């Protein structure tokens, strides 16, 4: 029950976008929307729109399930480098400095957190055999 949304050729550097993406990775959808709404960084508005798109994609594929009951969370968010536009800026003494205008691609995956998955995510306690020291000495 995953939903994927992609955003391509965003005209901000991948480094700046990763700062915002790290804030919402692994968070529940409602909390992630609140974080992005009040985040002043440049990429927050674009990621908020992308998250809303992913929610809409999930609703289209799961029409029989209620959104509140699904308990969606951001399973993964990945920011990759896009095209780099190379420009020249005049520099002193007839030289030129290269300006690199970066862009990025963002991939967002939502998933529903069901009760079965919560039990799997918790670390299982391993049962260990307790042996006495005297038993170990007799074996040798």
From TrEMBL:
Pfam families: Ribosomal_L22. Keywords: Ribonucleoprotein, Ribosomal protein, RNA-binding, rRNA-binding. It comes from the Bacteria. One of its GO terms (biological process) is translation. GO terms for molecular function: rRNA binding; structural constituent of ribosome. Residues 110-140 are annotated as: Disordered. Signal peptide: none annotated. GO terms for cellular component: cytosolic large ribosomal subunit. The keyword Kinase does not apply. This protein binds specifically to 23S rRNA; its binding is stimulated by other ribosomal proteins, e.g., L4, L17, and L20. It is important during the early stages of 50S assembly. It makes multiple contacts with different domains of the 23S rRNA in the assembled 50S subunit and ribosome. The globular domain of the protein is located near the polypeptide exit tunnel on the outside of the subunit, while an extended beta-hairpin is found that lines the wall of the exit tunnel in the center of the 70S ribosome. Part of the 50S ribosomal subunit. Belongs to the universal ribosomal protein uL22 family. PANTHER family: CHLOROPLAST 50S RIBOSOMAL PROTEIN L22-RELATED, LARGE RIBOSOMAL SUBUNIT PROTEIN UL22M. This is Large ribosomal subunit protein uL22. The lineage of its organism: Bacteria, Pseudomonadati, Bacteroidota, Cytophagia, Cytophagales.
């Amino acid at each position: 029950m995953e939903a994927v949304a992609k955003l391509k050729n965003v005209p901000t550097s991948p480094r700046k976008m990763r700062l915002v993406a790290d804030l919402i990775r692994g968070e529940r959808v409602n909390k992630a929307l609140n974080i992005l709404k009040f985040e002043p960084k440049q990429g927050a508005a674009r990621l908020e729109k992308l998250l809303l798109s992913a929610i809409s994609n999930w609703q289209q594929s799961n029409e029989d399930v209620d959104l509140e009951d699904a308990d969606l969370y951001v399973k993964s968010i990945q920011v990759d480098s896009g095209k780099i536009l190379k420009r020249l800026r005049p520099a002193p003494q007839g030289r030129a400095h290269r300006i690199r205008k970066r862009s990025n691609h963002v991939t967002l995956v939502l998933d529903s957190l069901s009760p079965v998955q919560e039990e799997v995510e918790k670390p299982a306690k391993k049962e260990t055999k307790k042996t006495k020291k005297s038993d170990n000495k007799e074996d040798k």
